TrEMBL record:
Protein name: Primosomal protein N' 3' DNA-binding domain-containing protein
Domain of life (superkingdom): Bacteria
Pfam (any one): PriA_3primeBD
Molecular function terms from GO: 3'-5' DNA helicase activity; ATP binding; DNA binding
Record's keyword terms, sorted: ATP-binding, DNA-binding, Nucleotide-binding
GO biological process terms held by the UniProt record: DNA recombination; DNA replication initiation; double-strand break repair
Residue intervals of the Primosomal protein N' 3' DNA-binding domain: 15-115
Organism encoding this protein: Leucobacter chromiisoli
Length: 665
DNA sequence: AGCACGCCGACT
DNA sequence: GTCGGCGTGCTC
């Protein structure tokens, strides 16, 4: 840390202030006072006077200069908060570029990148008494193939890898997905080459698997970035990442912003998982941040997944990312055509799937993936068993009270319902949630151990003994040795989710579940068919994705174009859109009224426009919309005055770039 | 966000 | 003339 650039006699310090105000998102010049001249360094957190002599604000020193362009007299830097230069030049450049690309403030990115300081932890670290598990790491000797991969990555290669299915047993006896072992080896090989590696995974269950795989190879000296950590743990890890030593950083979406000495590669697992989309402003997806960082730092990039995201496929088609050529090992998939099996849905599962379950249960655990947790009673036609749909909006009909069916989407009661398929008039209740399914299985497969795992009560692992594991998509436990059988239910329902990415999401859910099967296990998908199901069953998901991308390209849907939603009062939105006039490759949908109420209690009268633009114009679109936002925010204080304080001005402009959900109903 | 500056209407 | 209303813009 001693290498951070010092003031070196230069009298001006350039500081980025901590502020949520967009109009303050630029550097402010301060005088370097004589008494701090010897200590002040780039990256340090400082306290500076702001707005008046005695009001202080925090910020980071971004650089030094001989003179300032500011007309007035410079106020002096008041204090150095910590001697540790927390903000490395590399992370600063990243934060600035990522914020600019997303129409946001660099400070918002830095909040994700830098944990709050803990004096105790800092003292321990400085004294060298901090716990450093890396001290006991065994040197790793990468296999030839791994060394070659690490070399390519360190040279800046960008790769898309389809990971093999199946779990793998570590030397420690622990089971992890083969993908985790593969990713761990790649990280270790990069590290063995004297470079840092950042491994980004969606959630803590993934993190645990990679951590176990690294530890089994003798590497426990990782830096973890994990939502389960206390702030002290997080800061201790942060300081270790800051050390001038190559590290392996392993963490969730904010790990892409971790400092790293000689960054060799960013490795990302399952970038299609929505958890990698940052929910805080400026809502930058970890994949996009990784792409920017790799480009800036010259580091390599590896996207690994069981099912490729549309975004990565687009980059592969452009030749920006290179796809792995050798086909990965894949679980055998049986498409059980539910539509040709008479009375297929008499029980919860079609009869042949029930047979596969019974067969699997003779040797080990069986996984059943369902769409929703709990009971989720839905209405079906009493005559033909078809899913009942609302007459008004075609939404699914649920039962809020046991007797009366009502639409889940619009609330319309299902009186005088008539089945469009067979003309039946009688609604029947059927439970499809995980708990309800588990109850049914306890009866249908009497004497079998039935285990539940869903978002609220996730189970990370199950043993190799026979058990029927009912899990919601994404919450499937890892089974020791793998599942004998993986059954995918509710296929039509999942495909019917009205999002632009339904097909892509389904492939990801199914592929990730199929990957949990034993090498000689089997995956059964119970469905009437359709292109997505066929693509999955035949292992041609990439082909399907390419045709999907071609369709989206024709319609100007993301990711073939970028999008930004512009929300606010009608006047504000119109003003923002006007700044885009004359830009080629840019159009917009709307503005359309935003439905009032909703999640955050949206007040009435607000509108939203969706701006679509080619990637090449992204920087200019972001710059102009950001300009409109700054102008709106700057004028807002006067307009707000007189109104009740506390509540933010609802008609204020809000920008959101690359939102996955803008085209969903 | 807050606070200063400045440009028009009512006042000692 | 000058006090003070609030709209406008800046904060190193």
């Amino acid at each position: 840390m001693g290498e951070a650039e010092a003031a070196n006699g230069r009298p001006v310090a350039r500081v980025l202030l901590d502020s949520a105000l967009p109009q303050l998102d630029h550097l402010f010049d301060y005088a370097v006072p004589g008494e701090l001249a010897g200590e002040l360094r780039v990256g340090q957190r400082v306290r500076v006077p702001f707005r008046s002599r005695d009001r202080k604000s925090f910020g980071y020193v971004i650089g030094f200069a001989e003179h300032s362009d500011f007309g007035g007299e410079l106020a002096p830097v008041a204090d150095i908060v910590t001697p540790v230069p927390q903000l490395t030049p590399e992370v600063w450049r990243l934060a600035r570029a990522v914020a600019d690309r997303a129409g946001g403030s660099a400070g918002d990115i830095l909040r994700l990148a830098i944990p709050t300081r803990q004096v105790r932890i800092e003292k321990q670290h400085a004294a060298g008494t901090a716990d450093d598990p890396g001290a006991h790491d065994r040197p790793y000797a990468p296999a030839q193939e791994e060394a070659r991969l690490a070399e390519l990555l360190a040279e800046g290669e960008r790769l898309a890898l389809t990971a093999s299915h199946g779990p793998i047993r570590l030397e420690t006896g622990e089971w992890v997905g083969s993908w985790a072992e593969q990713l761990a080896r790649a990280a270790l090989a990069v590290h063995a080459g004297g470079r840092s590696a950042i491994v980004v995974v969606p959630d803590y269950r993934d993190l645990d698997q990679v951590r176990d795989a690294l530890a089994a190879r003798g590497h426990a000296g990782i830096v973890r970035v994990d939502s389960r950590q206390s702030n002290a743990e997080r800061y201790a890890g942060f300081l270790r990442a800051l050390d001038p030593v190559p590290r392996i950083v392993l963490g969730n979406r904010s790990a892409v912003y971790a400092p790293a000495h000689r960054l060799g590669a960013i490795l990302m697992w399952d970038d299609g998982d929505p958890v990698l989309a940052e929910p805080l402003t400026p809502y930058v997806h970890a994949r996009d941040a990784a792409l920017v960082r790799a480009e800036q730092s010259g580091a390599g990039l590896l996207f690994s997944a069981h099912s490729r995201s549309a975004e990565v496929e687009r980059l592969v088609m452009l030749g920006y990312v290179k796809a792995q050529v050798n086909p990965p090992r894949r679980t055998r998939v049986l498409h059980a055509d539910a539509s040709v099996v008479p009375d297929a849905f008499a029980g919860r599962v079609p009869e042949f799937a029930a047979r596969a379950i019974r067969e699997g249960l003779r040797h080990g655990p069986v996984l059943v993936q369902v769409a929703t947790p709990g009971y989720a009673p839905v209405a079906v036609c009493g005559e033909c068993g078809d899913l009942a749909r609302c007459g008004a909006c075609a939404g699914p009909i649920g039962f809020r009270t046991a007797a009366r069916g009502a639409c889940r989407w619009c609330g319309e009661f299902a009186t005088d319902w008539r089945c469009p398929t067979c003309g039946g008039r009688h609604l029947e209740q059927r439970g499809t949630g995980s708990e309800r399914t588990a109850e049914q299985f306890e009866r249908q497969f009497a004497g079998t151990r039935v285990l539940l795992s869903d978002g609220e009560h996730p189970r990370e692992r199950v043993d190799a003994r026979p058990a029927l594991v009912v899990a919601t998509r994404g919450a499937e436990p890892l089974a020791a040795g793998g599942y004998r059988t993986v059954v995918l239910l509710d296929v039509e329902r999942l495909l019917g989710i009205e999002t632009l990415r339904a097909g892509e999401d389904c492939l990801r859910w199914w592929e990730n579940a199929a990957a949990l099967a034993a090498p000689d296990g089997v995956c059964v998908i119970a469905s009437g068919g359709g292109p997505v199901v066929r693509a999955f069953a035949t292992g041609r998901a990439d082909e399907w994705l390419r045709s999907e991308l071609r369709d989206r390209h024709a319609l100007r849907y993301p990711p073939s174009v970028r999008v930004a939603s512009v929300t606010g009062g009608p006047v504000e939105v119109e003003r923002a859109l006007a700044t885009l006039d004359g830009l080629p490759g840019v159009d917009h949908l709307g503005p359309a009224p935003l439905p009032p109420g909703g999640r955050a209690g949206t007040p009435p009268g607000l509108v939203r426009a969706i701006v679509r633009f080619d990637y090449g114009h992204g920087a200019e679109v972001a710059r102009r919309l950001r300009g409109a936002l700054v102008a709106d925010a700057a004028g807002s204080s006067s307009r707000t005055r007189g109104k009740q304080p506390g509540r933010a001005r609802p008609e204020a402009l809000r920008l959101r770039f690359d939102d996955r959900g803008v085209f969903d109903s």
